Amino acid sequence: MFETFGISAQAESAYSLLLADPGLDPSALTLALDGPADAAVAELIERGLVTPHQAKGRRFRVEPPERALELLIAQEEAALEARRAALADLRGGVADLVAEFVNGRSEVFGGLIEQVIGADAVRSRLYQLAVAARREVWTVNPGPAPSRRALAASRSMDELTRARGVRSRSIFSTAVQISEAMREYLGEVVAAGDEVRLHPDPPVLLFVIDGETAVVPVDTESPGRGALVLHSPALVQPLIVLHRTLWQAAQPFDGQGEAWDAQEDRLHRIVAMLAEGHKDETIARRLDLSVRTVRRLISLAVERLAAESRFQAGVHAARRGWVRAEG
């Protein structure tokens, strides 16, 4: 029972023997343990489970099992608290390193706009903003489903912000539901009390922190190149309005439901139009989507159909019944 708390098997056996007979002398205890008793007794004394006692007929005072368990739990909790404090100190040290890293890769204009260069520096700046958030973080995520590694990083960040009472409101492309790992992650987010909605065509990557700071890509076509961190209310407020507008047009995530069905139907229609020879621009216009979103959905369809090209995707889609046969 005590091995969970790091008590050796020899010490636990010694405890049981002394609990039954506190008057056992070292030689009798050694004989009963079939080995030296000194180390086991010393371990029990160190953990407070037994104490030397000189009363007649008793060499040790042995804590009863329920008291022993409470003592061990209290020791474990104290160790965990000390570990948390040490980790908090480490996090403070990391914050200094992150600040040094970001400052070397960013430029500030009038205290209202920062330009951060490079994907790594942008991630570090977002980390800074997230750990400094006081109330809420709003996001718009137009890209495809992130990798499992990126999702693991997102989970760590989510835990960090939730522990401080910061809530999130996130908009993702409906296309991310193709990924089982992403559906699982979004389910976790919703179960934790945060809000998630799906939009057919989110226009831009966006972060809004506490309604005071916003982050957008320097180049919407290549978000990894860098980001602009906006502090001016005149620049942040329109982005808040954009997020609210997208939020109203989006559907709540429920794992499957209408958003999933709509996404499946959209993929089928896109593949059907590809098979008919339509160009990306024509498909985008007919479905009222951006060309970028259409191309992303085509890539998803190719992946879903295990195809190596658009043409092969059309062949596979016909076999699966996504495309109606002629005649």
TrEMBL record:
Keywords: DNA-binding. GO terms for molecular function: DNA binding. InterPro entries: Sig_transdc_resp-reg_C-effctor, TrmB-like, Tscrpt_reg_LuxR_C, WH-like_DNA-bd_sf. The keyword DNA-binding applies. Residues 256-321 form the HTH luxR-type domain. Pfam families: HTH_23 (PF13384). GO terms for biological process: regulation of DNA-templated transcription. It comes from the Bacteria. PANTHER family: HTH-TYPE TRANSCRIPTIONAL REGULATOR TRMBL2 (PTHR34293:SF1). This is DNA-binding CsgD family transcriptional regulator. It comes from Allocatelliglobosispora scoriae.
